[in-house]
Specification:
The protein is mostly beta strands and 533 residues long. It is built from eight helices and 35 strands. The protein has a 15-stranded parallel beta sheet that branches. Strands 2-4-6-8-11-14-17-20-22-26-28 form an eleven-stranded parallel beta sheet, covered by helices on one side. Strands 32-31-34-35 form a four-stranded antiparallel beta sheet, with no helix packed on it. The longest helix has 15 residues, at 5-19.
Length: 533
Amino acid sequence: MKLSAYQNYLFLILTLLLTQKIYSQKIIPVNPGYGTLNAAIENEESNHSREELSNTIFTLERDGFYITTGTLENVAYKLNVWSADGPGARPIIKPGVDQGGLSVNSFTPRGDLYLKGLSIRNVDILGSVLGDCVVGRSDSLNIVFEDCHFDSTATSFIRMDVDWLNIKAIDCIFSNSNGAYNGSRLYDTRKNNVDSILIQNCTIYNIASYPSRGTSSGGAINFIKWDHNTIYNVSRKMGGVGQTIDSYFTNNLFINMAIMGKDSLGTYLPHPQYEGDIFLTIRELNNIYAVGKEQNLYFHHNNFFNDPAYIEAIPEGVTYPIPYFENYGWEKFYENNSLETWYEIDVEFEHPPLVVPEHVSLLWSLTDDNQDGSVGEDVLGRFTNDGHPFDFSYPETNFCYTAAENGYPLGDLNWFPDKKSQWEAGEILTSIKNTEQQLPGKIELYQNYPNPFNPSTTISFYLNRSAVVNLSIYNMLGEKVGTLINDEIKNPGKHSIKWNVKNSIHNSVSTNIYFVKLKVDENSFMNKMIYLK
């Protein structure tokens, strides 16, 4: 008898049902207490297969307090630890100590990991701040954090000791990576290859070094996206994306970044190991897995602002850092971006962490004997958690409230629940493209960077309103040698343009002084630039 197509389909479905096990989702409630979470996981591991374990969710009580008796290490199965539904604060997970007073990090996944609705405090019950909080130890894992608060680390919240991890942090808080100034981060790729990193709608504050470590020499990274994040109080730069194929930095608030400034040698501290660019490092693709691929950087709809108290704390001879890329980074930037949506506005948070200008002055006062970063916990004016909990919402009247893509607020949208709901629904709000709006502050022509330069330099200026702009270059005789902007209408915000002296002056160029003149409507501003042969 010949079966119809429909009968063949039913036969196939029946065969699959008879030959494969179907695992339903299993919920394991865990009582608060000392070692209860470790015991619950160990009990399930001894009685169930890896497939069953991957479909098990360990739920922790709201307002509960959980002390671990060792690192939570899942091998070849997906570990799900979630907060129970309902009202109350996130359950707290905190490391215990052994009989010798020693403790270990909370999670060491060797299988996929999904943490949801938890407060993970990386300070053991004796008060010691531990190093890395979550350490990936098997290739190609998927590690997801949703609605979690990670607090305190001496090194990194996420450490990638293996290749091709996928890291996803959404609706999270990362606070007080507050150890040494050369090693306290949000994540560290450890020169390994990475598949993807997504940091979205997160709030990150009090970072003693820099949030992102994607090294320039070493692994390739397929994809990085930082979107709608609020980043506040960072001693050094944003960090590096290294050899990343596709990088996205969009709709973020970068407030009090690279507060230590740079000296005339381009160093963050008076020590050669801290040489580097100010904001974000991106490198050419030469890794075997990335070479030959198209590299893209998307960097737009971001706001930068540093509190004046930090700027005043920078000692003489050190410059306040305008957030630049290095030369290769600028090349990639201008391929896909402009500075039309690069803002510099004080967002006036409702209740942020304290500004600690002594953090800057103490760092610059270090001698050659204590610049290795090891003194971070002892003598540095560290960021403070006083005043917690914090509120990073800001007034609806602030320019940044509609400055993100599709008219949303810049930064972590969780501080604006109604806007977050609209964003999740995909609604498009009124755009910021309003040329009549006036920003706070004054029109300003910044000093070019680098200066002295050879052969190119970047010139930046700030507009507090829409205006007709001219930007020209003159030599010492008062002769115009280049026109960079000619009667163009520019939107309010920060603008930058690169000038190469050899492209404007075709004869032999010797060391010389040039002047850049900015004309905004009827107002004029001028700076001196030095070209070194």
